[in-house]
Design brief:
Layout lengths: L12 H16 L22 E7 L2 E6 L3 E6 L4 E2 L4 E2 L5 E7 L4 E6 L4 E5 L5 E5 L7 E7 L2 E6 L4 E7 L2 H5 L9 E8 L6 E7 L2 E6 L3 E6 L5 E6 L6 E5 L2 E6 L2 E6 L5 E5 L6 E9 L2 E9 L3
Antiparallel strand pairs: 1-2, 2-3, 3-4, 3-5, 6-7, 7-8, 8-9, 10-11, 11-12, 12-13, 14-15, 15-16, 16-17, 18-19, 19-20, 20-21, 22-23
């Protein structure tokens, strides 16, 4: 199951087998809880079309869908929080939810980017023509927003502190307007995923490449080629985990070495998130089209 793991790797096979067996036994015996949003008693709170993106922070979750809305959920009550957030003129494909800064960033098929206050639902900023085509990926970290589009480009937006924030820097709820800083060109396919990590951005594309970019110099530092397109990327330290059809690869983006190949599936792997400690993958969450 773990192709590419070195022979002397410390893999807890017994623990993995016990957990897998326990999960299977619970499932076969019906010992599980069916959880859904919204609660079945409040079906009218649901999106009116397909749901394309979700982001969670603590006991709160944000979703975006084909109905053009962004919705906020309470995981304890399984209920919609406040009203649905409306403003996009197309399907909401991409989300970033920062619970600490109390903001949601959303991108849509109509090439728009919106920034919302999570707690109140108020729109903080609208960027109507962020790209020349649909915005399908975005990530916000450290005052920088990366957006990926079907126009093959990655754009970098930097947060300019508001006047209020300058005088009240301890208040993380203050919002500074996002201003376009640069356009990163090099992909020849739609940019399916982006991730901001310190002074770099990692992007994946339908051109079957993963690229690492310098935010400061705007140059492409490294390119990883794949036999098929990549649907998702996540960065933890020096490790990139990327989801491609039927497998996840973990790569050291400094050396370019493939650390591990994991989780082969029978159908396309759509998303992956990895947590690494001391260079080891200690937790992995993935989802594929096989359900």
């Amino acid at each position: 199951m773990l192709d590419g793991v070195s022979q002397d790797a410390d893999v807890p096979w017994h623990f993995l087998f016990c957990q897998r067996t326990r999960l299977k036994d619970n499932w076969d015996a019906g010992r599980f809880t069916h959880f859904q949003l919204p609660h079945p008693d409040h079906a009218a709170e649901a999106h009116t079309g397909a749901m394309y993106a979700i982001q969670q922070h603590g006991r709160r979750l944000v979703s975006g869908g084909a109905d053009g809305t962004v919705r906020r959920w309470d995981l304890d009550s399984q209920r919609l929080t406040g009203r649905a957030l409306r403003g996009h003129h197309g399907r909401v494909y991409a989300l970033h939810f920062d619970g600490r800064k109390d903001i949601i960033v959303s991108g849509s098929s109509s090439a728009e980017v919106f920034v919302w206050r999570f707690s109140s639902g108020e729109p903080l900023q609208a960027i109507p023509h962020a790209h020349d085509s649909a915005v399908v990926s975005l990530h916000f970290s450290g005052g920088a927003l990366a957006t990926g589009s079907m126009d093959d480009h990655v754009k970098v937006w930097k947060q300019c502190p508001s006047v209020q924030a300058v005088h009240s820097s301890a208040d993380s709820s203050r919002y500074g307007t996002l201003v376009e800083a640069s356009t990163l060109k090099g992909h020849v396919g739609g940019v399916t995923a982006v991730y901001v990590h310190e002074d770099t951005i990692v992007s994946s594309s339908g051109d079957s490449c993963v690229k690492v970019w310098s935010i400061d110099t705007e140059e492409c530092l490294r390119t990883f080629s794949n036999p098929e397109h990549v649907a998702s990327v996540h960065v933890d330290g020096q490790k990139i985990s990327k989801g491609a059809p039927q497998l996840i690869q973990i790569i050291d983006h400094t050396s370019g070495e493939t650390v591990a190949t994991l989780c082969k599936t029978s159908q396309t792997l759509r998303t992956a998130y990895a947590k690494l400690e001391n260079g080891r993958c200690v937790a992995l969450v993935s989802g594929s089209l096989e359900g």
